[in-house]
Amino acid sequence: MARIGLVAHDEKKDDICAWALRHKAKLSQHELWGTGTTGGRVMAETGLSVTLLKSGPLGGDQQLGAMIAEGQLDMLIFFIDPLSAQPHDVDVKALTRLATLYDVPFANNKSTAEAVLAAI
Ligand SMILES: O=C(CO)COP(=O)(O)O
Q1: Is 105 in contact with 76 (CB distance < 8 Å)?
Q2: Cβ atoms 50, 34 nearer than 8 A
Q3: Where do the H-state alpha helices sit in the chain?
Q4: Which domains does the chain carry?
């Protein structure tokens, strides 16, 4: 069982919910962790169980980054919006940096998410 982090910026939340619904059977075999709003929407729209962290702008990205640094997250699915400024951009950068540093499989868009999930 893999520990998978789920995050999406506001403009991408519909996409991550649709992706999670499409892969519900497979995702249900894994342990899911999500930033507050993303995780809440995935739970509501798919029925999957997601452990909720704080909302991203309130520290949720940092919590996922800490999990990566502690070796507690096996995969990060982060649907990033490249067209909107984020007030917590430094936190987003820290999370993506740690995922890179610790060589965690990390999808930042829909097609990569398909590929990464297919690999487990
Ligand atoms: O802001 C986020 C990622 O940077 C996501 O946080 P929410 O899921 O709480 O909206």
Answers
A1: yes
A2: yes
A3: 13-22, 24-27, 36-46, 60-69, 89-101, 110-118
A4: 3-118 (3.40.50.1380)
| Ligand 1 neighbour 56 (Cβ under 6 A) | yes
For the chain, what is the largest distance between any 2 Cα atoms, rounded to a whole number of angstroms?
Answer: 35
What mean pLDDT, rounded, does the chain reach? 98
H-helix or E-strand spanning residue 32: strand 31-34
* Residue 88 burial by Cβ neighbours in a 10 Å radius (0-12, 13-18, 19+): middle
Q: Are 17 and 45 in contact (CB under 8 A)?
A: yes
Set 61, 74, 81, 89: catalytic member: 61
Ligand 1 mean position to 36 CA, how many Å? 7
With bands split at pLDDT 50, 70 and 90, how would you rate the model's confidence at 76? very high
Whether this model's ipTM surpasses 0.95 comes out as yes
